[in-house]
Structure formats: C-alpha cells, structure tokens
Automatic annotation (TrEMBL):
Keyword Isomerase recorded: no
Classification of source organism: Eukaryota, Metazoa, Chordata, Craniata, Vertebrata
MF GO annotations: acetylalkylglycerol acetylhydrolase activity
Transmembrane segments: none
Reactions mediated catalytically: a cholesterol ester + H2O = cholesterol + a fatty acid + H(+); a 1-O-alkyl-2-acetyl-sn-glycerol + H2O = a 1-O-alkyl-sn-glycerol + acetate + H(+); 1-O-hexadecyl-2-acetyl-sn-glycerol + H2O = 1-O-hexadecyl-sn-glycerol + acetate + H(+); cholesteryl (9Z-octadecenoate) + H2O = cholesterol + (9Z)-octadecenoate + H(+)
One Pfam assignment: Abhydrolase_3
Origin species: Seriola lalandi dorsalis
Record protein name field: Neutral cholesterol ester hydrolase 1
Amino acid sequence: MRLKPVVLTVLLTVAVAYYVYIPLPDAIQEPWKLMMLDAGFRAAMHLASLKDWLGLDHYVKSIRRTTEGFEGMIKGLDTSESNGGVMPGVKVSDMTFAGIPVRLYEPPAGGEGHLRRGLMFFHGGGWALGSAKKGSYDAINRMVSDELNTVVVSVEYRLYPEVHFPMPYLDCLAAAKHFLSSEILAKYAIDPERVAVSGDSAGGNLAAAVAQEISIDDTVTVKFSIQALIYPVLQALDFNTPSYLQNQDMPILYRPVMVRFWLQYFGADLSLQPQLLVNNHSSLHDSAITPELRSRLDWTVLLQPKYRKTYKPLIVERGSQGLVKEVPGLLDVRASPLLAGPEVLAKCPRAYILTCEYDVLRDDGLMYARRLQDAGVTVTNEHYEDGFHGCFSFIVWPLDFDVGKRALRGYINWLQNNL
C-alpha cells in the first residue's frame, strides 16, 4: 500500500517539527527563530558525528565547513569592501603580529594629528570554531572601528584540533604584546592610555587571561586600560553551578558541549566527559585543589541569592583519582582566569562583563565580576534577563535577535564612555 503524497508531507512536517521544537523560557523573544537556529547547529553536530564515525572527516573540521558554508549564504555577512561592506570606509588589512595572523581595522577618520583608541579582539567558538575574518565578528569590529574611531586588531589564533592549550593563549599573548609595543602604537596613531582587550565566550576567556598576564608583566610598559568580556568562560572545575544546571538544555551552548570544548582545548580524552559533568575531577580528596583555590569559585558566596536560587553545590568526597594530574590545565590560571589570586586581580584593568540569564556561563561571568570588585577593580556588569549564549553575534538577518542588537549597542556605548 502506497502512502499518498499528502500523508508523507504530514509525516515529514511532524518529524521536522519534533526535531526543531524545544521548550524555551517565556522570557526568550523570537523563540521559533532560536529553535530553528539551534536545530541547524544540532544537525551540523549530528552530521559531523556521523562523518567522524565513518572516518570521512574530523568532527570539528566538519562542523567548521558546515557553519562557514551557511555563513556564506546569509545576506549581509559579506562585509568585504569589494561587496560594498557594512562599513566601506574602514580600511581592512590582513597581516601578522609576532607571526600571528590578525585582521586590522583602521577608521576612516584617520590619525592625522589625533591619537585614536585601540582595541584587540579575540573571537569565540570553543577554541575550535570561528574566525576573526568572517561573519558577525568582522561586521562588529568594523562597526567598532568606524563608530568609535578605533584601530581594531582581531586575532586569528590557532584552533583545535590543530593545536591544544596553551597554544591559543600564547598566540593571543604574543599578538597582544606586539600590539602594545611603542612602535605599533605610534605607527597607527593609537593613544597608549586608551587600549582595550575584548572577546566573547572562549575569546572572553583568552581576553581575561591575557589581561591578567599583561597586568603583572613588568616588561610590558603599556598596559590595557580596560577589558570587555562577553559571556566569558572562566573555569573548568565546577560544571554544576546554578547557571550550568538551570541552562543545561538551553541553546545554543548545551552543558555537555561546553565540557567537550574544555576537553578538546586541553587535548584530553573525550571519554572523561561524564566524570567532569558530575564534578568527579574536583573532589575534596584531591589535595591539589586547596581550600583557597576552591574559595575562588565558591558560588554560594560569590553569587547573589537571585542567581543561586534553590540550587545546592555538588561537592564530591573522593571522585576520580588523578584527573587533575591527567589534565593539568584544569588548575592553570592561563586557562581558568577565575582561579587567579586577588593580588593578580587587583592589577587588572577596569572591566565590562556581559552576562546572559539563559547561558551556562552566566555564573562564570558573575563570579569574576564579584572577585574583581572585591580586589578593588571597577566593574560594569551588564546582565540581559532575556539573553542566551551567542546572542551578541546574532545581529544580521535572518539570524538577528533583538537582544543581540541591544547587547552589541550596550557594548559599543560602554566602550564609547570608558575607552
């Protein structure tokens, strides 16, 4: 018996709707658009997993190709001057800083007789995806350069699987030191008192870590004056914070995906994911994680009650033996800036930290804001009650969200007033 075309159509529609639909909080605006976006990401990950299992392609490289191909199809994302660009007056140059590929944006106003702002940007993507030269990152940096008369340097640091920690961090640090040199600042007419470092997600992690290192390095005479961190990922010892639990099934960054990103970054065995999800890697029995270290990410103290809600900390007595020794990066402040001591934080530049309510990384940002403030650093925490991870990058049709546009405008306004 053959099914009629109308029946097949109905079945297919139901199947697609079942795959696309996920329950979302009432505060999320444009929920169906977010569902469709998330379904696209999930489909890319499922396809990548299949190709990896069949030996046809590496999991991450497959996702890269899918997302890059999708970006190329979206109207408005090509901001090259040959296509008219979103900011055609901005001069864009691809070059290297200390051997690291960067894209440099010079504002149309020029620097004749006037010093300009400077900003170094590190893109997100779980240390595995994304590019300084494509999509919304390119568009955002052009906007910042044009509107704020700023020389922007976006760093194309190396990614997993080609490299692991600490190479992406070292790439960013080398580029930052080159950017802050007197020769480069003079060449591009940048005011040494008005230089910022910024990044989103994994890029926020790199920006925070680089800002810390620059602040305590006496060989670097020019320091970053401010840091702007967009929903940064800052620690890998507790994957059971209130925001990790509240938003574990929230697009577009699911809790297991963030754990996988960490394991990839560290070059660790991906089979450790279940252990990290239940905090077996940070048990009380592990003497390497001292009480002082634990206090630096104790969300029962660092978070306000409205964010703690009714969640309870997951404290494991014994856990898995030797995980910290097996993955030493877990305790490295270059990977987890939230673990830095107060003497380091006290030297850090003024900070802008953007957090989103519906983001597993919300509490990382909130705890870092509190610890910086406790160390005497001025912090602006801009929290979006209807925000979700990645929204800052979704500003171009058809993947534009109102909260993303508001977040971008808030970021630019803060830079305008503080840089």
